[in-house]
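Me: I'm a chemist; would you kindly supply a protein sequence with its structure tokens?

Assistant:
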Amino acid sequence: MNKYPKIGIRPTIDGRQGGIRESLEEKTMNLAKAVADLISSNLRNGDGSPVECVISDTTIGRVAEAAACAAKFEREGVGSTITVTSCWCYGSETMDMNPWPKAVWGFNGTERPGAVYLAAVLAAHSQKGLPAFGIYGHDVQDLQDNTIPEDVAEKILRFARSAQAVATMRGKSYLSMGSVCMGIAGSIVSTDFFEDYLGMRCESIDLTEFIRRMELGIYDHEEGPGLGIRSEDDPNSPRPHDRQLQAPRDGIPGRSPRTQRHSRRFPGTASVDRLLPQR
């Protein structure tokens, strides 16, 4: 089984003790558990295994707790996070500072709603250049209601799908086959986006690599016929050693049958032969 990144759930809370934090501990942690269950029950990795979630050991109300959560997520292989809160929190002390995909769900409740914290922490993320996806429900919920509304669930799952895809691609390579075609800017590979934002390496090959692999038989021979590639077992399929150079004529170097075929397909290319140096 492949090792896939996990999604970290960060329950943030108002850190003021003396009755405020204590009254919100259970509620905030229950929301975090509900989000983790929603994701693991609905999303799958590339091999069909459920997406795993990791919840912070404690609610996060101060910098020390945010740091402890970040350390746990690093050990557990977390690749993205969702911050959950039902109340106001100290934004700059509880926000996720890691540069991975992140979202914040502010619970729309009857008491101490998370709307103010959501707006404040999203502004802090923008100020620090750390993009975050904001989630807020349309309908007001009772403080004791730990269910996730349908519109919120859709937003959470939408983010989680994208975040898990990005986290899975991190450290992989993007292979560009060929280059810009017909001046279409969409064909340009933006290495800054892949390397800085997605954390991927960029590679490229020329399309002649396709021809080389077909001629040398470097491909899956079981899938080859379905792709229009003849198998080695096909007596009509040319072998690399069967290619014979055409005898030189009039001082012009010989050409392979493939070059001759291209000249027949593209009539104008035959005149290029006359530009070859004499030997």
Q: What stands out?
A: The chain has a mean pLDDT of 83. DSSP finds eight helices and seven strands in the chain.
